[in-house]
Amino acid sequence: MSENTTDQFFKSTVLGHPAGLFVLFFTEMWERFSFYGMRSLLILFLTASFTDGGWEWTRENASALFGSYVGLVYLSTMLGGYFADKVIGFRWAVVVGASLMTLGHAAMAVETEFSIYLGLVLLVFGNGFFKPNMTSIVSEMYKDRPEKKDGAYTLFYMGVNAGAFFGILLCGYLGEKVGWTYGFGLAGIFMFFGMLQFWLSQDIFGDIGLKPNKESKAKAEALDTDKRNPFSPIQLAAIAFSSILALLWLINDPASKISGGKVNIFSFLGANGNAIAIVSALVVFIILLIYRFTQYSKITKEKLIAVTFFAFLTIFFWAIFEQSPNSLTIFASDYTDRVLTGNWSVVFLVINSLITILPLVIITWVLILLFKQTFKFYAVANVILSISFIIIWGIAIWMLTKDYYTAGYLSLSDSTLQALKIDKVTTALTEVPATWFSTLNSLFIISLAPLFSKWWESKYNPSANLKYGIGMGLLALGMACVAFGASGIEAGAKTASVSMIWLILVYLFHTMAELCISPVGLSYVSKLVPARMIAFMFGVWYLAVAIGMKGAGMFGENIDKIANEHGLSYFFWMLTIISIVVALFSVAMTPVIKKLMHGVR
């Protein structure tokens, strides 16, 4: 396959999209399996007691480390995007990233203090190389089919969430019910499978993502007639200054809190050294960004301003949405009644069986469709993909068997229990894992993504600002649900038994909000940004996400302080109000942003 046009990819399609999209679909699925599987356990592991195998940290310290970790994960995409664009190409970046993440998960499975921190560092750099370049490959495949990009990204996002669903469900279950090592280790195994599948199928992408050479660079420059705007030495120095300062702040913020002030890089700046450092970095970056915009041609400049506006809104979205693995997981673990008896036990077991098996059936069906189109050319990759699914099916059936036995609805002999590595129980109990609620987000996306994809492709497709307004409004509705549910919890309470329905509603509304904002936002970056800047601007987009992620951690750090003084409900009402304000702002800016987008929908 020597040519590289949009038409060649659409000659072999699955569900109306190129077969190559679904190679990326499954690669991204296993990467998200590993990422979300580990992430769902991190806060619980850090705050669990020593007797339960955890580190017994305070919620404040756990949230500080969590916020910096996920912030660095997305910040590192700037580095990965640059190396892919200039040095190694998209494909090698994906392989390097996947390899680093495999090693990172393996290190975390060892569970020593050094190995956990080493694992987090490897995962940060691995995600940086992997994440922006997967979306860059999708963008290149659809560069001449902009009308199908929204649908493609929504389907791609469905693969992301299929991986997240099974990662949280299975890694979370093993981590909580069996041992943290099993949860962390399983995440690494499937990252390795994803890497092999991608590497062995890479020829399906034609020339996309190959290592840049003089010919490819010249070709890209010939196609791009936009005004050039190279970085001057002063601008590069400003980027280095703000980047290093922000990086040091992300590391120092949790380090200074966890160490009780013994480790503090910015102590020379006084008591507010951390705040001074990050504000200085942001001011320098914003000044540079404004100046850079003045140097581009008028249309490019206005499109980049539009992207920056949506990136700004995205910060608030992720800061609130990402309470899922943080304050909402704490709410599920400590303040929600998760023990079920009688008919409710049966209802949960049946529902859990359905939401485990049905998505597996659907994804397996997509896998079979892909086999029909690609097995002849990529047999080994398809065999590896098949093996990974066989393992997933096996673990899922083992989990359900264990649940039915523990609940008293299934009798197993001692020899069978020993063979299946299931502990014998004498008292029937059905307890929903705290991580289980996070799977609802992915489950709802798998169910609702096709509907939203059709909506975006119809004549009723809302404007970009309205999509963001709807998304932030739904985010507010979800937070209002949990705020109302927590209204009976007194200030200072460490435990409670709130109904599970409030968390279910939160994840339903937040999922619809995510479908309005996250995949659509990525699509607008690819539509509005010149081709030569795609990978870098995806990196800039993920920089906004990084700020939002760290913001989520900072919100989570304060949950105990606010709950002790005003009650837990007050904390969630604050997030509700912020969401409403951002939603109204997005809708109010519609005329301005529409003009800046120059007809792009």
UniProtKB/TrEMBL annotation:
Which residue ranges does UniProt annotate as crossing the membrane? 62-83, 90-108, 114-130, 151-175, 181-200, 234-251, 271-291, 303-321, 341-370, 377-400, 434-456, 468-489, 501-522, 534-555, 570-593
Q: Which GO terms describe its biological process?
A: oligopeptide transport
- What range does the record give for the signal peptide? none
A GO cellular component term found in this entry reads:
plasma membrane
Q: Which domain of life is it from?
A: Bacteria
Keyword flag Protein transport: yes
Task: Report keywords, A-Z.
Answer: Cell membrane, Membrane, Peptide transport, Protein transport, Transmembrane, Transmembrane helix, Transport
Which PANTHER family does the annotation name?
PROTON-DEPENDENT OLIGOPEPTIDE FAMILY TRANSPORT PROTEIN, RESISTANCE PROTEIN MDTM, PUTATIVE-RELATED-RELATED
In the record, the note on similarity to other proteins reads:
Belongs to the major facilitator superfamily. Proton-dependent oligopeptide transporter (POT/PTR) (TC 2.A.17) family.
Q: What is this protein called?
A: Amino acid permease
